[in-house]
Amino acid sequence: MAQRVEQEPNARAAVPIPTPILARREGDTVTTPVEKAWGKTVLSMTNVNVFYGSFQAVADVSFDVPQNQITALIGPSGCGKSTVLRCINRMNDLIQSARVEGKILYHGQDICSPEIDPVEVRRRVGMVFQKPNPFPKSIFDNVAWGAKINGFRGNMNEHVERCLRQAALWDEVKDKLKESGLALSGGQQQRLCIARALAINPDLILMDEPASALDPISTLKIEDLMRELERDYTIIIVTHNMQQAARVSDLTVFFSLNEQRQGVLVEAAPTQQIFTNPQDSRTEAYVTGRFG
Amino acid sequence: MSARNNIPVADMVEGMGVAQLAPGTDTFRGQLVWRHRKGGIFAVLGLLSLAIALAMLAVLVIDILIRGVPWLNWGFLTSFDSRFAEQAGMKAGIYGSLWLIGLTILFSLPLGVMGAIYLEEYAIQNRLNAFIRINITNLAGIPSVIYGLLGLQVFVRWMQLDRSVLAGALTMSLLVLPIIIVASQEAIRAVPPSLRQASLALGATKWQTVWHHVLPVAFPGILTGNILAASRAIGETAPLITIGALTYLRYTPTGPLDFFTVMPIQIFNWTSRAQEEFHDLAAAGIIILLVVLLGMNAVAIYLRQRFRRKVRW
Known about the structure:
The structure holds two protein chains of two kinds. By secondary structure, chain A is α/β, with parallel strands linked by helices. Chain A is built from twelve helices and ten strands.
């Protein structure tokens, strides 16, 4: 992904945006150097700034997320990783004082644009939260609900089974689908939340420190699962755990704080490069554990 | 405290056993004995307060039972008021109260809950909304007779509903709305934000989130608020007297525009009579009022438990 190399911005702007419906369309691909190396770009951020009231939390962040890869966002606490993640599915809209500037292109469409309905964005961009937060409903309903409200027409039983299998949870819960999702263990709950996110057929999945509240065994299960999901989905994960980023991700974006305590992007590169041959001294200090 | 390990009780109270574990220093003075004793004092004070409150209530209830029970019979429930204590009954009051409470809940529950949903889920944070929030709480503290005056002017005179049960219910709705709104707000606020985020992140609209996730979880709390509101409404007399509800009535309302009386008004009326029998009759009326009140609460608690089971925590 290398930090945004020159990209013809006009080439994308020229693509007409007929309706604010976010669907993958043929013919709107623009090959950038990043895409040559990593395949199609799903998400592309350009000069993104996030403000909470008058405080600027994130300054001038630009990076690309290639398809069917896992991109890890790492950095010290408070450097805006989660804030950046929440821009991608417009969850920052829920915070009254939050304001997002810049361009976030999702398959070539700017999802920050006011014409885009955030509900439509969230329908395409799934999210898994830090703390497992299943609905206080049955396991079946936890998975089925998202599909139902989004107008899923099909065999719901099969759909739920498929999602639970994809989330590597089916064998553990197939006999107790009617029990509460909250009766499961923490690790199982988090996989249920992943199954729930898969049930709306997203193509990009955001994970906000999905394993930080879990024990090491459950963490490994989640990481294995992410590797599985990578084949069908694009994943962006925020993590505090550098080993996790090194183990699981293909690309790593390192954030840090500047003098004004704003989150800035320091380096974005293939994970191996970040951890073995970082180009920036701040990255090196962080990944070797001397800072943060 | 027992004399364990042959240490005399007196010594242990002095804190010897503890002092060995964490002896006091210049910077830390444990004073554990005193801290424990302080806890003990407050436990006793709490128990005492509870005992006083319960004893007063018990005396009141027992007094009423002694005076009222002899008057309780089927006739008391099924006959209308009378000049003769032996023939007087509560039929008009019971019917009137049920009409009043039914209509009041019908008006105030949907309005109150929807208002609370708006304030908690939709209203943006600005000064106007903060002002509205504070003043709803203030409204809950306004004396009920003021609501009676308001109802008299607005419902009885301007809307020309006369002294009907509808006018009474509308007045009562105004009275209990703040209670319902505040309680519903509390219940909605107690729903964890992570639940809303989970729902919204799945591409649910705000209304879908509220309807499918927030309300089911908040519903038991909302019902509790409603129990409080209904209990308040069924015992209120002043605003109804202000709007001109009748004290002596020999028929029951057949529609919302009929005249009415309620149990507390009948009771109030009987206590103001000179004859001693009517005072005992009032005690019997209070028993009926209590039974109706407890019955309503029981239904609400039953509903609350049912809805609580529906949400699978």
